[in-house]
Specification:
This protein is of the alpha/beta class. The chain folds into two domains: about 170 residues, 3-Layer(aba) Sandwich (Rossmann fold); about 120 residues, no CATH class. It is about 40% helix and about 15% strand. The strands form four sheets. It has a seven-stranded parallel beta sheet, sandwiched between helices. Strands 7-10 form a two-stranded parallel ribbon. Helix 1 packs across helix 8 and helix 3 runs parallel beside helix 5. The chain starts with a strand and ends in a 5-residue tail after the last helix. This is SDR family oxidoreductase. It comes from Pontibacter qinzhouensis. InterPro entries: NAD(P)-bd_dom_sf (IPR036291), PRISE-like_Rossmann-fold (IPR055222). Pfam families: PRISE (PF22917).
Amino acid sequence: MNRTALIVGASGITGSNLASELISQGWNTYGLARNPNRNIQNLHPVTADLLRPESLTDALADVAPTHVFITSWMRMETEAENIRVNAAMVRNLLNALSPKKSVRHVALVTGLKHYLGPFEAYAKDGFLPETPLREEQPRLDIENFYYAQEDEVYAAAAHDGFTWSIHRPHTVIGKAVGNLMNLGTTLAVYASICKDTGRPFRWPGSEAQWNGLSDVTDVQVLSKHLAWAATTEAAQNEAFNVVNGDYFRWKWMWKQLADWFNIEAVGFDGTIRPLEAEMAQDGPFWQEIAKKHSLVEPDLDRLASPWHTDLDLGRPIEVMTDMSKSRKAGFTVYQRTEESFYNLFEQLRSDRLIP
């Protein structure tokens, strides 16, 4: 059966890896972004601005996708603005595709803020869910741009008759440059700075995260999950958590990461020490490190997103997700989490992004 994919956000951590996965499976694949990824072999770049309907109409004039994968979002100053802008991006895209009558399935990638609350109320008292997180848990009684994105997909599906799937990963681990949320690369850069400057590789987060159970999502697992749900009848019109399938405690994992870089790990000492403050003055250090080791990206802000890593590691509760819904529907991919980090670090080093 002919399958033509349109990946929205193909330059990001999820979209770029999804493109490689779909192309390897034989999909005809288009990648839409304001600055499309042109480094993936056999990916057809599409340049468009999701906030300008006329831009989408022009860019998609000759593209008739059967499957749409929405992996992009835009961060604004307030949640009200997040809702306005990110809902419009989804709505504009699906409106532009509607006259073609080609779309059979739309997949939307969101995340655990569905359960934990938006940035303005993230994991705060009154919004702390019971864990492990399960897909049947109701929406929080608070505005959330993930809900607005979902509602745009539901409305378009009802109008145009396609099926949908919602994918909720937890902390995606994978390579991307210029990504807004990238814990794995942020920790790799932080460890590299600590090693080069002799600073301690100090745990930045909360006691609950240090001692509690957690999980993450390897980007390869997420890519395979997106492809599986788009082509599996049992996954149609369903929302799914997507994680590696194992649990860990950061007090164990932190030492594994430190050992990989051959530095000493310093654990929780009773005080939260946010990375955003710790790395605030590290731009010049990173430029020196990049020059000394002939790295290809001297701009620290293009690699590290400490503000988002602080959100994840500073939460006041342990957070893990239930994968039984996917397992029951037939998705059996599993990934050991320490290997997700090691594989990422090796790739970053091979690509000369860290020393």
